[in-house]
Queue: 4 jobs
Job 1
Amino acid sequence: MLRKMTLMLAASAVAVVAATGFAAAQDTLKIGASAPKTGPLAGGAAVTHWPNIKLWIEEVNARGGLKVGGKNMKVELIEYDDKTSGEEAVKNIQRLATVDKVDFIVTPYSTGLNVATAPLIARYGYPHITTSAATDNVPEFVKRWPNSFWLLGTSKQLAEGVADALAKLRNSGAIGKRVALVNVADAFGLELVGAGKPALQKAGFDIVYEASYPLGTQDVAPIISAAKAATPDAFVAFSYPPDTFALTEQAQIQKLDVGAFYVGVGTAFPGYAARFKDNASGVMGVGGITPDSKAIQDYRKRHKEVTGADADSWASATTYAGLEILGQAIERAGTTDKAAVIAEIKKKPFTTVIGEVNLADNVNHNIWAVGQWQGGSFNGVASAGIAGAKAPVKKDAWK
Amino acid sequence: METIVTGILLGGTYALVALGLTLQYGVSRIMNLANGETLVAACFIAFWLFTSYQVSPLWGLLVIAPVAFVVNWAIYMLLLRPLVDRAKTQGMLEVDSILATFGLLFMFQGLMLRGFGGAYTSYAFLAERFEIFGTFYGLNRVVAFVAAVLISSALYLFLYRTRYGTAVRAVAVNPNSASLVGIDVARAAALSFALGGALTACGGALLSTYYTFNASMGVVFTMKALIIVIMGGVGDVRGAVIAALILGITETAVARLIDPGLTLAATYALFTLVLLFRPQGIFGRQQA
Amino acid sequence: MRLSAGEIWTGLVGAFAVGVAALLPLFDQGYYLALALNIVLYAALCTAWTLFSGPTHYVSLATAAFFGLGTYAVGLGLDYLPFPALVLAGGAAAAVLAGLVGAATLRISGVYFVIFTFGLAELVRQVVSYAQTKLSTRMGLYVFTDFTEKHIYWMLLALTVLVFITGWLINRSRFGFAMQIIGNDETVARHSGINTARLKIILFMISGAFIGMAGAILAPRYAYVEPPSAFNPMISFLVVIMALLGGTLRLWGPLVGVIPFTLVMDFVSVRFPNDTSIVIGITFLVIVYLLPDGVTGRLEQLLARIRQPRSHAEPAAVKEPA
């Protein structure tokens, strides 16, 4: 009895496989991705970058693939670890382009790696849709590499957003004008403070304490205590994930009670809220999501289902949107010809999870600059060009 | 004042990091570059015990320390003994052990990457306020400091007040003479290596309560530990503790009073001064 | 300068090999050129490293610090000086650092040297970051030139040749002879009147200078230079492993290590991207337990045994062990 059943099951399985095999003629679209799986940026890439690639490909293939011309093309991923090294990244792009001969390349992760690989990607003519590079040099890059598109905004936008959010709080009487400003001594931190300090001063704030610390510093107690000694009304730190966490913990322990507490990258990670629970409420950081957007809520749900982890509230959605744009551009162009797809990306706006994105001049001008944890959601409170910001709330005292 | 207390607390952290290596290098003569990996592995295990089974890291020590002891004993007997037997001079053993433990460093890192991924991990344990002289400090750091004091004291008592401990110290001073007076040098070396590993693992478990760690961070800890061990005088536990405290206070003072961007530079400056003027370290003996 | 027949022969073979290697960009400008570039880069770095660490047996982990200095020299000076001057400047900066480090650590035992160089790249990275923070609002430096892969490849090839020639000249000179004595027994060397500390420092500076120049040449390839990638400690580790794998007893020893290791690593990173660390670890362990003098050391041992008068060859045909 059992044997007969097994035979029948096997037979039907073969039939099903044969049937799908004979379905409409399918090609595969080869997409290459090179990003950190090891090295200093592996942690960030594991949260923001790789899961979105996985999610997008699964969804595209689940609905039959991309419709290119008359064909359905399923997406096949070829992935490499660049070990957070520019050298490895360049080698991987070479390999993807000349040995694996992929049709398209997913953007690398982080400003540094995107810039290191941009000349090469441009040389091979691939569309380069960056979603994790935030830098002030975007206009220059676009001139150099007309095939590149920059979705995450510039450091200037992000820093001015901070001044904006703080000004809103001051205008509502929640805080005074004394600001303690620290930054991680790394490219991003420097750009942010370079734009942030003048923006804050222009908005009428006094910088009562400033300091910078090396990347990887774990013992931030001296910084917090020095900041506390300056009796600030607001604390702004342009920091990276490990120090973001460390600064928050120290501020909580030393009771640095300010009306506005901003820490940089990492605040938008689901791990941040998980770690600090109630104390995360009211903390501001880079990024933010459109609070009432159904598209975003839907996206976050799917992200959790398919990848098992929560999306972050900054570059995750943008990374996904970048892939959506690539897919839609390929479908619109009706061909896998790289130049045609690049032209298509600039022609008309796209509908994505982060709203409508217009890349006519290769740059996405509408980004969330500052988000704040409000009721368990990292809502956008200051933006460049996006509507729907929630008002920033004053931070309660640390518990 | 506050700077000094913070510095002392940090010194306690560093002592935890360096004590294990003091034994391993001082007695077993193994320059264990994989020391930091043992520490990070302990961090991950403490994290896993805490998040999956709600076991406090302090209780977790009862599991982590013996496991680390056994693993390090195995490493010494299987991997490092052949090198000890093979080496004709102290210098050769050092170079060989550096390379071998270097290999272990990468292997452990690779295994941890596979097991835990490359992401930053941290958890909150005793992240509450503890007041000392009117300023607040993290309770987790204070607890770690107290633990460091207890562990160092226990180690000190073992080394200076017991017979076997004195034998171990004799091996640290001069293995050849030690074997002449009937001390089983091989056994002492293996025991010290294993004990050193267990100490480092304890340090790791305690550190994990207030540090953010990931699989690639071992190297940072090894670096600091090496500097402290050399500064304190190789093989001398008292020296290591004092060096750790000096380092902690110096780093905190530089961060607070000069600039947080120069902490490593300050560490290195201190290290260079020691190398130039007292290369045998605080408690070391003048080498022939 | 009198050259033995063996040396002339080696020189010709070497020149031929370099000529063939230089032709590669004409055949492939993509992935294989990138791979070859990596090989030539590490050939230069490892041979330069062996110039010092071979004779002295001091394991230097300072490669990343010198390399990064070279890269930064180009990054900082690109708007002010021509590229060749920057390459020399990079080499000079690295040599100065090598001199300082050497003066501080080479007078005492080798272990302190290793430890010091272990963290040196981190230290330099921090200091450079600090300086950048204070002096400018940018951390990363953009290096945009008209050089393409093949130009960098040829420059590195030229540098490698230069390193080899320098090494060969040193070996033939009194300097090299003194280094050999130091390497065999430092106490004897000192008692023979050799100023061991000074010689070690000079050799370290020469080695560092070449590494710095390699870093400078690579700068255009990175396009964006920032401290974490310029002073990446992995560079130091990889150089050590490849040089030791090949064997440091001979000048061309590291080359024997560089080529297979780079190919294996490439293979592994493509098929098992998550396991590269484990492969490196295993390689180190293999070196320590099975190949303490590297592949070339083992080969020479085998050759020596083959040449032993165990066969029935005439006594006159017996040569001394290599």
Job 2
Amino acid sequence: MRKVLCAAILCGSGMFLGCGAPREGFQPVDKDSVVFWDRQVTESAEFLKQIVDEFNAAHKEAIPIKVERAGGYDDIFRKVTASIRARVLPGMAVSYENMTAQYIPTGAVAQLDGLVTDPDLGFSKEQLDDFFPAVLDTNRYTDFNGKMYSFPYTKSVLMMYFNKAVLAQAGISAPPATWDEFLDQCRVVKAKLGKFAYAVNPDCSTLDGMIFSLGGEVIRNGIPLYDTPESIRAFEIYESLAKEKLAYQIAGGYDDQIAFGKNEVAFIFRTSSGRPHVTMLMQDRMDQWGMTRIPQADPGRPATVLFGGNICIFNNSPEQIRAAWAFIKYFTAPEIMVRWALGTGYLPFRKSAAEHPDMKRFWGEWDYNRAAFDCLSFARPEPNLAGWQRVREYAAGALRKVLEGSLTGRAAALELQQQAAAILKQ
Amino acid sequence: MRRAINNAQHILLYLLLAFGGFLTAWPFLWMMGTAFKSYVEAVEPTLNPFPKQWHWENVAAVFNAAPFGRYFFNSILVSGTVTCCVILTSVMAGYAFARLRFRGRNVLFALVLATMMVPFELTVVPNFTLIQRLGWYNHYAALIVPWCANAFSIFLMRQAFLALPNDYFDAATVDGCGHLRFLIRIATPLVKPVMVTVALFAFLGSYNALLWPLLVTADESMRVVQVGLTYFRGDFGVRVNLMMCASAIVILPAVLLYFVAQRYFVEAALSAGIKG
């Protein structure tokens, strides 16, 4: 009797929760507007709202765009995942590649290739050539026949921030261009000032950036490449930094930027979009710091990591898809992109932005304002495979082990290779 | 000599208690002080809670960053309604499980308790799906209805009703009292401290909820205070001073409520053996 009762209740709950509901098409969360689930806050949220209002005013015949702040990336991922199950979706949402890769198999995400090349709605060849190739490539998903399922939105690159005041005290006049120079300068800072030169935020993107800059890759044809000489070299650099006490691992958050602002370290590696935060921490002492591309193995063939979110459009109705795409096209026009970049700190990812007078004026205001934009031509995206998030966690863990001294650089690289291969095989 | 030892023991005890109290209050003090620091001072890893210079303008900055007045209204409305509903459902269900005799009572109670074992994260997606299908997305119903009953409160109330001597019910029955009248006129006043505890837990649980309100609301006019706190966390870091300032403002109702109901709360916690 008890078993029967339990079974009846569980079945009833399952039906109540919609487990057995038949699958149907996706519906828009709001039929009267194209809802955009975004994560911008404070000033940048206001700025986005302003751009959206202008778009709506200029496109009165179309369904209006409505921005809704849906929390951070994790919150948005949960909200979209739950919405996919409920078959009720917004018009579009900000998304990292690994998030989009998980939405695609459900059929919820609109494929954009047709829209991008559409003679009426899309971009001309000249316009497409105006985008930096990496920002488009990262939205083509190798797991899904290389089709485009998202479009660039908030882009930035991995940069090296250097503290001029600390370097000057150590007798160094220019930041390092190569990794050997970087290690040498760290040793000089340590020897002359007795302090750590680099506050490390153990993070997969920074590791990947180092590997790219050393001439390596992190994946090819779905096979991870953390056991290549370049990857092992990247780990060994961290091993040297830890063994010689040239660097320390931060406890978390943005402690590296805080240490940088207090002249406690000479170098940190962070996204270019962190510039406003560092500016605040340096209390506008703009003559005492700078930002430049990360050190390279061969400065003649540079590389760094491309960061940032994209926008994916959801498959809820043809009208909503068209309206969402119209907004994306408007938003990525050079004029708007320059305004967005100047207002928020993200990078304009069209080459023609370099010719815009406002951009030129901004670059003229500080020696290093252009540095990040110049990196876009050689920035590389990280893999956009569905399991990559777990690889990222293992990569950060491997870096921590090296910094704590529990593994050598080589051993950490080989262990990560095995873990990444196992994850991607799944 | 013995008196001196007693005094020394007392002093030591009070010192230890004071130290424990200080440690407990320290994060609160730090939050209050940081609320009025400049950004640069706030991010410094210092133990000093007091600002070098008081930045009162942080309060205005918080209210300018987001419509906290509206958020407060929503939070109080939602938490207040949830609290009333939880008291009602837990008193009724608790009494039924404690005093009524019916087939399957123990199985049903075990099932209710089993819901406590299901983590919130596991129920988020099906609950969200249900809310969407009911058409409650971005409505107060989505913020209130799913939290109107919970196993923990029912359990607490059941234990409280079980502790009442049977003689009370027998005497009331002799005088012609039915279950409903006994519950309202006799049992409920006797379990008031537990009810206050249930109310406090329900209010604080609802008032402090973040993920669920973020998921089921869309418009700023529907958001609650905890969602407002996330506005100070962006891509580039956390605006620690503004976050702490907003937090200090946001926790005020909860702290006030605790002080008002402190006596009942402690009484019930001691009698029910709840650990904080």
Job 3
Amino acid sequence: MAKKILIADDDPSILDALKQIFESEGYEVETSVDGEVIAKIHKFRPDLLLLDIWMSGVDGRDICKKLKSQPKTQHILIIMVSANNDTKEIAKAAGADDFVAKPFEMHDLLAKVAQHIK
Amino acid sequence: MNKNVINNGPKEPQKNGVKKLALEKRITNLTADVKYAQDIIDTVREPFLVLDGTLHIVTANPAFYRMFKVLKKNTEGTLVFKLGDHQWNIPELRKLLEEVLPKKKIFNDFEVSHDFPSIGQKTMLLNARRIDHAQLILLAIEDITEQKQLEELKKRNDKRFRALIEKSTDAIALVNQKGKVLYASPSTKSVIGYTPEEFQKLTNPFDLVPPDDRKIITELFSELLKQPGSDKHAVYRIRHKNGKFIWIESVMTNMISDPNVGAVVINYRDMSQRKALETQKDDFIGIASHELKTPVTSLKAYTQILQKRFEKYGDPVASQNLTKMDTQINRLTALIEDLLDVTKIESGKIVFNKNVFDFDTLAKDTTDEMQLTSEMHKIRIKGEVKKQVYADKERIGLVLTNFLTNAIKYSPHADKVIVHLSADKNMVVVGVQDYGIGISKENIGTVFERFYRVKSPKGDTYPGLGLGLYISAEIIKRHNGKVWVNSKIGKGSTFYFAIPINGKPEKKRLKVQEGEEEVKHG
């Protein structure tokens, strides 16, 4: 069965491009553009969440902390994404499994996701 | 007249001999006295007049003739008010000579200002004596014009300097060795809310500085006291009378050993507004580069998707072009990163993510990546580090990328670039050597400065923001390393950096330093 990835970002173009990339690699992809990540998580039950740190109106760190603190969702792998490389430590502190800086090299991103999902 | 008396002497009868002798003696003495008096008058540097009872001039001294440019023949015997075409017809003088002197016999230091047609505006001090037995008046004239002008000038200068201090928007204070405020300018009120009097009552002006800044500023002050004539520059917070903290830019100058000042001069400039603007600028650049990165991210993703598709469906030309396009997107990203980095460096907010990594691998990866940007140059690595290094891998990679970018950019006719790697017990040394245009001696000191850009011999500039080497130098400095360059014009340059292998945690940066450094608050 295909592994499931949920991508949360407030930019539709990034979501569109990432969806294409992961789908072409055989993943099942859902996207969340409006910050309704938690609701989508419960519905879609992804293996991995690609989570933008700074989304308009929502703080990715809070979502990350919440998911990692609840038994039902703490198994979900979370890779945080930010345009700011300095937020790497912030991502780690929020309990994320990994961090990727924007803009990314496709093969780096795919390798990172594959390495976590296995 | 005297001469006649003396010559007539021997013709007198013998009886009168003694009388005659006495008279002769008296006359001789008198002659000597007159000569003596004349000598005094002539020697005095101040103009001097002897008038008779009717105010006609009996005699004047050379200083008088010199100063008032009149001749002896037109002077002696003339009514003083008629002298020199009536230019001495001064109402005050008339009053003094005609009314005051007959009653009082004397007047002293009477100041008169008068515009003489021959010599212009003069201020004089007049002193006079009435010598009744000789029916003479002695009038001494002291020219104090220059002295008056100097006094006026001094008064004006005093007023001007006072105005400079009092009307300056900066607050200025004089503080003694013990930190007691001796003087505070009126602007103290507009800068920190306290009136100069209130400010002077403080036991110490640094009492208004919050504790963490106070320690630094007090240390700086005692350091300043040890160096007469030196000055210290600091940026710190001060508690305004309204209770809020404001940012102050301050220059303290030690003038204690100057006997006329005997204090430390402290200049306070309110820089809250500038600070706010700086923060606004930093925030703006932060937001702008974040916003710029969003479309770049999707652009890059789409490019890579397309590149992969063309590769898969067998269109190598399209695929190669898309790879080139991706490289250009990387350049754009690097420019955005530079902007962001320079802002962070300036605001002291740069954060390093230090990790242990294999240096040779980083050098190889970076070099391989850079090789893609130039078909002309073969980039070769010479030597190796063979060590694990503790540093910010991405930013050290950025420094190497910047050095390589420059090496390629400034050697348009060369076919190679060499990366020299070496290490000793403590340091990794990296040199990037090119065979390009080189740097002239006068420019070699400034290449690591912000916004420095190379000009070709024709005066054209090369593309770029002029931030790469500045950022590189800052990154290396904050790793407690160093950067340097060897270069020969027309032969090429080698840019070096060295960083500690076991990059210890950074020394906490001293918050106040001399010169351009400023207080930073985390």
Job 4
Amino acid sequence: MASKSLREWQTDAWAAFDEIEHAHRAVGGTKPGRRFLTQQLNYAYTTLLAARFQGFARALHVQTADAIALGAHDANYAELLYRSLTNETMLERHNAQPNSIADDFGRFGLDIWAEVDAERSGNDQRRKKLWALITWRNAIAHDDIDAKLKRGALEPSTISLATCRSWRSALNILATSLDEVTADRCQALGLPRPW
Amino acid sequence: MRSQPTAARRSDFPVPGDTFKFMARNRTSSADSLKVGDHVTSKLPAFNWKGVIVEDLGPLGIDGSQIFVIREGDEDNGRHFNARAENLERIAA
């Protein structure tokens, strides 16, 4: 069983990504020059990937905090715990960059990236892709792509449909691992496995 | 024949694939449900904070409970935290 957050990622978010893919095919075709016609779609795809992953990570944090708080022995203690676990989270104010995720999920006593890396090989490389996605997302959203390219701050230096697909694939696996690791954590705390 | 105006909304008819937030719109539509902007406090006796609902996260609770983001304090310096709907009580602004 997966968490509600993961199920929503795998249904609603995937459907949104597929819409961009369809738009790509409709606009771009296969002729030379399609790269220029579809660059804005790639930027939109990048922004959408980052936004939906933030939504997933935030929802997973909310659900994990809820599962842990419900394990408290009385309602007052549960509310106190829930409030502490959800107070001023990074994911509420920032992108789902690895340090935001580490900070918020660290409240559950988790070294989240160590656990995620151990959960599936290659996750350390997928985390690097998440950083690249977020860096590109910020460059697009703040309209400073050129300045960042000059500083060599964007890797890769251009975004194609293949880049977006690679990011999407990495996020899919990271989402599954995050879901698994948080369920493991609830169990380790002596609670029923929540999903 | 022309269609007549109606108060029905898309969110009144959930279908598979709807997002939690979309479904949440319907769940918060009745007059006695909590909604963004409501001033609230905790029903639990050990707490006496007062806050405002600033976001409806939908039925994200592990048992499907509605979860809200509460701001305690003013707009610029207030603190944000989450609370379950069943633990909240609406109060006068």
